[in-house]
Amino acid sequence: MKRSDFWTTAKQNWRALAYLLVLTVLAVVLVVVCVRRGQDAAQPSPTPRTSAKVRKDAAQALLDGMTTHEKICQLLIVQPEALTGGSTVTGMTDELAAALREYPVGGVLLSAQNMTSGEQLAALTGALADGCKTAPLISVDEEGGRVARLMNTVGTTKLGSMYSYRAQGTQGAHDNAQTIARDIAAYGFNTDFAPVADVWTNKRSSAIGDRAYSDNYDEAAALVAAAVKGFHDGGVICCLKHFPGHGSTAADSHNGAATVDKTLPRLRQEDLKPFVTGIAAGADMVMVGHLTVPTMDDVPASLSHKIVTNLLRHDLGFRGVIVTDGLQMQALAQYSDGEKAVLALAAGNDMLLELDDVPGAVAAIEKALTDGTLSRAALDESVLRILQLKLAHGVAAMPENG
Question: Which of 141, 297, 325, 337 is catalytic?
Fold first, then answer.
């Protein structure tokens, strides 16, 4: 057929050709739709997360079923040796099981001494999870670098300090956090006291040092926010520390008093930035350090209502769980465990970390509730936050009527 004859025929039958073209396009679209539907059908549907309203109602149901003693115990995160008063715990014993029944704590903190092998560690965390009426936070300090309990015992992924990865940017911060989270979750942990939100600006001090993500406030803010998402993507609860910022202090609060010589406006422009972005990224917990900020209060931050409640809870709008740094540290050596517990709760903390005298602390809190030093309404608010956190991450089971 000549080209002129082809175009003559096409002009005479243009309607048929247009119809054929439309049918062809429709056929291609139909094939694509069917293929995509088939692919979607082959993928499991994501399990819908319970809404905040459902979790709040469920937490209230759990709270309503608790005695005052059980509520107080929910405020405590302790090392297992604090419950037994004996030698290093590496497995469930009758003594530990009885102690958990008497003091059903809100969380347990394990350290390297509690870890001898992967199999042993998984068995221990499983037994601890089953040992309390309400499942506890099974927690650890696993930051990478020099603070790495599992990495140096059971051999999880080898990671350097987070500071050494700062050039990798937010993707590196996310991926490292996700790796740590997946590693510890595999051994039964549901909570990591990380990431470090301090900024290493005092290079003459090793109190924080290379545990920080950066020595630049804005860079640290971006990296910490990315790490929060990484921990969540790895399946664990995370905790920003050490509020309102330990990176500029000369002293280490583990060893004695540590002072932050900055005004609140300066803190907002500097040290608070990683906490603000970490909270915005969805951090579950914030740990308050035993750092004295003389321009704000004359007591350590962990015992300061101005810093815990006014600054962190109200000004920064943090709605999650606030926990103290370890209460056995020398910065608080002048107080008994009972005094530390009452003062920290009065300041606005929800949870108390590493008390050695559990019976003494519980008795002091009970007395403070009786004489009005602490309010029962505040106790219930703290326990509700703790229970909602546990429900949100599947640590505690939804009540049957929830």
Answer: 325
Rounded to the nearest 5°, which phi and psi values hold at 336? -80, 165
Are the C-beta atoms of residues 247 and 200 closer than 8 Å to each other? yes
Residue 401 has pLDDT above 90, yes or no: no
* Among the listed residues 268, 363, 361, the one whose alpha carbon sits nearest the alpha carbon of residue 311: 268
Paired tokens of 184: 């510890």
Residue 49 has pLDDT above 60, yes or no: no
User: Does pLDDT of 34 surpass 50?
Assistant: no
**What are the tokens at 92?**
């469930």
Region for 118 from its dihedrals, namely left if φ exceeds 0, alpha if ψ lies in -120 to 50, beta otherwise: alpha
Angle at 178 between CA 173 and CA 185, to 5 degrees: 145
Q: Is the pLDDT reported for residue 30 higher than 90?
A: no
Q: Clarify whether 232 is annotated catalytic.
A: no
In the residue annotation, 192 being an active-site residue is answered as no
Cα separation, 266 vs 395, whole angstroms: 38
- Other beta carbons within 10 angstroms of residue 233's beta carbon come to 14
Residues 252, 254, 305, 393: which is the catalytic one? 254
* Whether residue 104 has pLDDT greater than 60: yes
